Amino acid sequence: MPPPTAEQHLLRELHASLTLRKRPEDVARLIQDLYAAQGTDLDTATEAALAKAAEHSLRNIWHGYTSMREEFARPVGAQRQLARAATLFKDLPDFPEGAGDDPARIEAVIRRAGEDIGRAYGQNDFGMDRLDRAERTAAGLGEISKRQYNKRFRLLRRMEAKLARLIHEQRRRELTMTGKGALAHALPYELFAADPDSAAFIAYVTARGYMRSVFTNGRQRQVYDEVAEALFGRLRARPERTCWFAVAHVHPRAEVLAAVSDEDLTRLLVRWNGFLRQVADLLEDAWNRHPLERATMVVRPGDDSSTWNQAAQAWNTARAHWFALLHELGEAAILDEVCPGKVPRLMAADVAYWHRMSGGGLHPDTYVWADLPLPWEVLRGEEDCPRSLVEAVCARHRVDPVAGAWTAPRPTAEPVAFRRTPELVHGVPVADPLMAGALRSAGIFSGKGKRAAAQEWL
To answer: For residue 303, which phi and psi values (nearest 5 degrees)?
Structure first.
């Protein structure tokens, strides 16, 4: 097999960025290198936009240092538990590399090891499910002492608990990536690399979507900027070569979906529909563990704000794609019967106070959310939420249901000016990456009083 060309190597690196948190500036530099390797002549607008962003790439700076991790946090696998199981259960097969991160393999090991001590999967009650001496003898375990039997039973019980945590954390990681970058992380390389211009646009927009939230009482930075607009212009200029299906995974603009076949649109709709139901289950689970203050959506003690906010962002992203696909397929009449609402994120108490002190208040969408049925109840058919109800609630709170994307797809985003990505410490911008690393190590800006700390230091 011939070695990969420079273009193929750069496409692989861009594809890998879909599961990383690379700065948009660094992705812009990769795109510049990709076009240089191809010998592509760029139009003036695209060349200027890419140069403006790539100027701040860490690839141009000493060792490319940043205080922020370039990877979404991965859950700790069960490697340690598998290693311990291998010492206690002698006839287990060898574990391939990465087995500790594979829930299916972990479950198979638990089931296989349980057969050795007469334990069925799910039998975790230490008082009721253990075998007594007579039962161990009848099961052919008479040679194992009570202490050794209990040690094995406890390990398998802990492994089941670890497996449940691992599945939950892996799901949360996928929620975070999907909420910020839609289905970019799930794009296979062959589809992504089918058209380099499409790949460049997808990689850059995804990097913009993966940017961390800034601690502010205003709007977060918008994803679609002048660089994305310039890259999209290249797709618009040569539609016959663009892989619109791949672009639709991350950018459900009407003109993108119009270029995708109905079969592929339906595939995306089914995928987003299933994802909506998964997210609804997580939202319901977080709600049932500790119901939120729905009228204000301000965090209270006991709220799992991290899980809720990740799930809320994933819900709103999935819902936006779902709405856009329904309209493109001519199935918007479904919303006349089922029109689930948006889900707001929880707001920290100090940010809510900051809003009030600066003359602001609750976002109008919070009032609409509070008057609508809960999304998981709507999807299960337990509560009716037709489009007419959403329109009536929006009218009551003086919210435009179309412009606010309550009953229609999101309006087409206008490109914003490119701005350099700041170094952040718990959402607080810090100009110097070395200082950011020092502040993070010292625990600055963490916990209560973040706003006051930020004002003191900055």
So the answer is: -70, 135
Q: How many C-beta atoms surround the C-beta of residue 438 within 10 A? A: 14
Q: What would the pLDDT profile of 95-154 be if each residue is shown by its tens digit?
A: 888 888 999 999 999 999 999 999 999 988 888 889 888 888 988 888 889 999 999 999
Helices 364-371 and 387-396: crossing angle in degrees, nearest 10, is 130
* Whether 342 contacts 283, CB under 8 Å: no
Report pLDDT digits (tens) over 269-281.
999 999 999 999 9
Length of the chain: 458
Amino acid at 106: I
Contact 424, 440 (CB under 8 A): no
For residue 368, give both structure tokens: 């609409």
Angle at 380 between CA 377 and CA 384, to 5 degrees: 60
The residue behind tokens 């940017």 is 211
Distance CA 375, CA 395 (A): 20
Q: Which two tokens stand for residue 349?
A: 């108490």
Angle between helices 24-38 and 226-237 (to 10 degrees): 30
Structure tokens at 129: 């499910």
Q: How confident is the model at residue 9 (pLDDT cuts 50, 70, 90)?
A: very high
What pLDDT is recorded for position 457? Answer: 34
Helix, strand, coil share of the chain (percent; to 5): 55, 5, 40
Two structure tokens written together for 402: 């179309």
Rounded CA separation 188/405 (Å): 30
HEC string for 159-171: HHHHHHHHHHHHH
